[in-house]
Amino acid sequence: MKNRRVKTLKTRTPKPISSPLLDTPPAAVTVDCSEDFHSVCKWVIPDFRRIKSRSLYSRYFQVSGYDFRFLMYPKGDSLSVPGHISLYLQVNDPCSSNCDCYACYKIVIVNVVDETKSLSKESVYRFSKNRKCIGWCEFAVSNTILDANSGFLKDGVLTISGEIRVLDEKMEFSSDCSEGMSYALTGKVTWSIRNYGLLKQMVKTQKIISSAFRVWEAYLGVNLSKSMVNGAENLSLFLEIKDVEKNPVIDRSCWCLFRISVLSQKPGVSHVSREYYGRFGAGGDTSLGWTEFMKISDFFDEGYVVDDNVLISVSFNAIQESSFSFRIEGVSSGKCKGMINCGYLGGKSKYGLVKRCDDYTGKIIWKIENFSRLKDILKKKKMKGLCVKSRRFRIGNMEVRILVYPRGQSQKPIHLSTFLEVLDPGNSSGDWSYFIVYQLAVMNGKMIEKSVVKQSAERCSNATKNHGWSEFMTLSSLFDQDSGFIGHETAVFTAEVHILKETFITTESSDNACSVTWKMENFLSFKEIMLSRRILSRFFEVGGCKLQIGIYQSSANICAYLGSDPLIDNFWVNYRITIVNQNDPVKSLCKESSLCTKAYFNADLQLMKVSDMLDTDAGFVVGETVTLVCEILDCCPWLEFFEPETGDMEAESSDCQFLSAVCQMDINNEECKKTFSEVSGVLGSTPYEALQSVIHLLFKSASQCQCIPRAVNVVRARLELLGAEISPDLLDLLGSTMNSQHEIAEAMLREIDSVFSLDEKCKLLDVTPCPLSKEVPYLDSGTRLAANSSHREEESRSHVHHHFSDIFILIDMLSIPSLTIEASGAFERGVAHGYIDNQVVALVLEKHAQRFSANSTAREKNAESLFSEEFFTSVLALAEILSLSINSQVHNFVKMFYVTLFEVFSGERYHTRMLRGLVDLATSPVENSLEMNLDMLIFLVHREHGFARPVLKMVGDAAKHDNADHSAIRHHLCCLEEKIIHIGEEKRAELSNMSSEKATLLERLTETEAALLHYESEMELERDRFTCEKAELCAHIQDIETQLEQLCCKHKNHVAKHCMEKRDYQDHLHHVETQLSHLKSLKHQELKRFLFCLPTSSQQHKFWNWLQFLS
């Protein structure tokens, strides 16, 4: 199942213009080729350069009963860039105003000089009543067309050609809608395509879209196209929402369950159908369907396309719904603490701080009016796990919607599941996180107080979008006629959401220290909620440890604490939390503490009294904003310390102090060898409680100093001494080490394989050395003595427990893809040589069950088994590999191994899978596998009679499947024989045609050779004539070049003469300008003298004004 969004057509429809009848009379269109649904036409525009009108249009021409015409804007329309020509295709149905047709069109501006330079564009489009025009607003550049040398205009005439193919189709729509209803909730659409071959080539790159049909309030259509998946052609079918209105008033959407079928037109061939569901529009998908609906070869060869006819049907069941959202205003009368609508989202508090309602709080009401009918349809179709999604609504920066599972999420439909989906559409990176308090409810129509309401608080992120309850309420109480939840076939779901408006800033100062600022901008809206819920910040990482701030109200105090991700290792963290005084930062209050992330209890910090914090003059709350700062002072891994129980207390105490110091520091390359030697010496005498830390340190130092084989040798020897008495923590360490450090895993596998490769004789002669006593010369004498003593004690124990850790590690390695084959081979050799028996394997599986039980949460535990699906698959694969062995001892082991598996994996689905695998191997063509697995099935049925019925049923199913395959193969062989005979006849006919064509070609070849000789003689004569003309032209060009040189010399002389005259004129002009400026200065001085000679100031002022007037 693949969903995809439908891309809009790149071409655009121009804006409405004035009637083109007022601009230019229509030009005629010549139809060169016309069929029922295919037409090739030509539009000739004379005197194109002289056209001044804004638009041009051709006369209508008919294709398949529809009237088409061309529309051109020589200077571009309102959508184009200036300097372009816009060209469109319009359609009109003379019989009605519907104009609903699907067409494939190609428009060409013809280059009359060179047709290869013609400008062409092609596309497909579904014309409708509101969309009658389609094309390109920037079809060509005007200057290119008008250029005289471009070849598009000949004598001012522009030629435009078009090729149009119209889809011959028929839509039959049947629904349950009553008379007068404009929508349908249940119905069937049959789309008949009668000329598929005409558009066959276009479908390779484009898609065929059906007419729109209305489902509830949305308009849907079928989308048919081809797609390439893994080099194979497939038929793609989608159901998509269509925008049929020019100016839609509402955002149309619908949720429906639909089935798309390709109908067979050949008797005996079944239809191909697929079923899916989902929401179209309003935040949902624009299209839903299948990219690989069926192979294109089957589509054409198996009777689904007959005489270019294709039949596609769509049946649908939609829900009748209504939904809306609004902001929560005012104070509700609710009394339940912690709920959103209990008066804490608006109003005025007793501290004088106004708590306003903003866009970060909202309520959604979703009503489904045919909910019981939807339940009946799902029950009839036996569909489980189906999810119905509401529209998306925006609250704050988030988009939320309600998810309802009408038959729940479990195998047996017992409970209704309801969730809230939260998305951040504005964050494309996916790194978003918001804290929300939400409430989901199923409303009771008879008594509101009996509505089922549940509330919670969660931090949402891209990884955890859905929050809610898989067992919200029982289906029996929901559909009880007297309960009141379903009234008039209608169910009402509500969701109230409150989003924390926050700012989270992290500042790193070092690898193990940082500072985090958490600003909550609508804190007062969450104040009462904190009495029953904790507000959690987003996670931040320091030194590999993921931490989180929490804040809540305890009695009359505001408390804060630091939490951690439960999946991380144990860390010790020293931190300080400060509540910032926003008016005076000096008065901020801070407290310091530390925590161990794996501890069961860590002390929380009481920051201050609630009344003191909410005081308007205190400065801790400004508006609704509260700011917390968390400083991580130090962060490091937590290591367990131990004390030795026996031996020299002072020496062992110094060893432990040395190990503790080394564990707390990073080991550099210079000290790693020394550390490795010291830890290896302590390993033999390490107490059982501290063995995990020492082995971890040993592997860590060995990886740095390239001593992994030695480390593996020492650790394996120590594990052999423990036998089956290995703690779950140590097994977890071994498992995580093998999965995370590939080099250690490979070295451990080689070590185990080398031991298991020794045959029984070597084992009886005890030639296998004790690794702790002989192969590790760097151990001290005390350690070697303890190892030898322990080895002698181990020889007295049961030999089967000796390799418990080896078997555990091999089974754990089965889940590592790169080591699966090698681990299976080593396991087989261990079985063949007597190192592994079923008793130890059963103990190992019990240890794995304990590990899985300890590491899984209550929700992850399976009621049937304590094992993970991945672990069961790997163990079952090991059993199947062992069953293929040719060793008799391995065969005997496998029989009891399957008995052990049936006892350990007690779930019915596990038994079914194991029996199915044995039956498949028993019915496989491999001879050895057949005999071995038949013996295994007989052994299991003899041991447990209850297995007889499912085994016989599986064998019967396999026989039916083989018979069906046999008949299909026989039918296919018959078809191939007929095709071969037909191909042979065609080839013989082709050979006879090729012989006749060969004779014709030989005759034409002889004629062509004669014509070629004639053309060669003419070419020689033409070459001689061309040589004479070339000589004459060269002489003429030489004369012209001589005359040109003479004219250039004369021109240079004239230019030099004019330059000299120009310089003389410029000198004379400069002399005249100098004299003129001198005269102006003399005149100005004389006027000044005359002005001062006037007797009165008034006369001087009048004279000055007169001079200004003259100037």
TrEMBL record:
What range(s) does the MATH domain occupy? 38-164, 186-316, 361-497
Q: Which Gene3D superfamilies match?
A: Apoptosis, Tumor Necrosis Factor Receptor Associated Protein 2, Chain A
Q: Which Pfam families match?
A: MATH_2
The highest taxon in the source lineage is Eukaryota
What residue intervals traverse the membrane? none
What PANTHER family does UniProt report for this protein, alphabetically? TRAF-LIKE FAMILY PROTEIN (PTHR47242:SF1)
UniProt-recorded name of the protein: Uncharacterized protein LOC105122646 isoform X3
Q: Highest lineage ranks of the organism? A: Eukaryota, Viridiplantae, Streptophyta, Embryophyta, Tracheophyta
Which gene codes for it?
A: LOC105122646
